[in-house]
UniProtKB/TrEMBL annotation:
This is Carboxylic ester hydrolase. Belongs to the type-B carboxylesterase/lipase family. Pfam families: COesterase. The keyword DNA repair does not apply. Residues 24-529 form the Carboxylesterase type B domain. One of its GO terms (molecular function) is hydrolase activity. The keyword Hydrolase applies. Residues 1-17 have a biased composition (Polar residues). It is an enzyme of class 3 (hydrolase). Its EC number is 3.1.1.-. Keywords: Hydrolase. It comes from Cladophialophora psammophila CBS 110553. Residues 1-24 are annotated as: Disordered.
Amino acid sequence: MGNVGASINSENETTHSISEDLQRPLVTLPQGRLKGIVQTDGFPQPVECFLGCAYAQPPVGDLRFRPPLPVEPSSAIFDASEYGRAAPGNPLIPPRIPLVYGEDCLTVNVFRPRLESSTGPLLPVAVYIHGGAFNRGNSSMHNTASMVAWSEEPFIAVSFNYRVGALGFLPSKKAAEEGILNLGFQDQRLLLRWVQENIHAFGGDKNNVTLIGLSAGAISIGHLILHYSDENPGPFHRAIIESGSATTRDCRPYDSKIIEQYFADFLAEVGCPQDLTAHDTFAYLRKLPLSTITGAQDAVFNKYKPTMQWAFRPVIDGDIIRQPPLESWHRGQYYKIPLMTGFCTNEGSLYVDRKLSHPEQFTQLMQTLLPGLPGGDIARLNALYPDPLTGDPTYQDVRTGEDIGPEYMRAEAAYGQYALIAPVRQTAHLASSMAGAPPVYLYHWDVFTTLYGGAAHADNLGYETFDRATTSQSHGQKEVAGMFHAYMTSFICHGGNPNKLRGRYNHRPTWEPYTPDRPLTMILGKGNRELIGGDVGTPAELTLEACYDEQCKFWWARTKFTQQ
């Protein structure tokens, strides 16, 4: 069972439940019997949690750098009271819980409300795919238990770990020869199969599955939507795609020059001869200590991080990503399902150097990110994002001082719109363009959490789960969280309709779909600057938002430069 925990017996059992007077729940699967815990944590209802359950055999030893294998059948009882090991990678954000890292990381967590009866209808299912730039992150970043507990109607939620960094995404010609490209995506695909085969045992409906993902999780869902089609339906039925898409940043062929350079750098770091065959190269890598792998992973990632070129990413492999994502969209080769997608105002603030001071640094950043960009486009960029040092007020930043350079604000806007905002809006535009398309709901997250970061990438994470750390900050923050949580759980519980679930936030505005002719956007936390000493703003407002239109069209026309 891998990292699911040791098998236990009735004489020596340790009670892990937060409410120790409640009996621990038990679920029987072909892989064994899972003994979970009950979490209350100030929730309006108890949540039964089955944590750290294996969905694949441990990818260690000879299974390192190989496709995942299903779990073997078992009749043992396993302790499912703690999250499993996180995939090796530097922490992205301060962890909610203490983390243990390890290769034996392919584990799944299932959360369900504690119901009075087990004989009712099967419940809707939500599967959360965590983010982390495909180089870090883990399932515990998302307070999934809270999301389930505060929902007005019951559903079952699933979160899981998949391989990231070099262990999950080490593309190259040699990896292609060995058939081991995009292993992290192969993990995700096996997890979805595990859900189809097992979720009924928890009371979930395998024919009513919503995917949710943020950042790399959203990019993952974008690729899954293009991998499946109406003729080849996926093991999910709708999706919530937050701050990411299949056209986010770059998705290049596995044999492109920069991908081969990342691989060569990695081999050099671990001391692997460059001239070995593909078979011998990975045989060498499988024998290395994990610390050597992770040390090389960190060194290569950090080498390219200052220019925001990230090693260890998904590539066009001819299988999960069959072709450049934009081609799939334009050919109508995608899975047509209801979508909710959105972006944050300041998607670039986590990534751009805040001390950028010279116009040449702005130009160099853009040329590094998009080396195929024609020279005339640099002039166009300077028109779309005018240099504040010329006196143009558009990106003049009142915060400029020793902590922030005069070029930061326009660089943040340009990078955020290139990398995330334009791709998100592109998904909404393309998915809603075809006649008879399922509904697409677009949001814009605008709650400023810090002065310098603004409404930063992933800031909405604690709001969608109605996390107590977020809702306890103020009534204004709780109101935004409540509306966002209600929209999302309604989408999950009512077949992709964000409005049908009512309850505590019955007063939230009706969310109408986005269409190319009527690009409606739900602005969440519009003008909310409460956490930096400003106004509370408006919790939710539906509007025909025209901001970023010219910039997004510029980036849409240049997506091809990120896929070659």
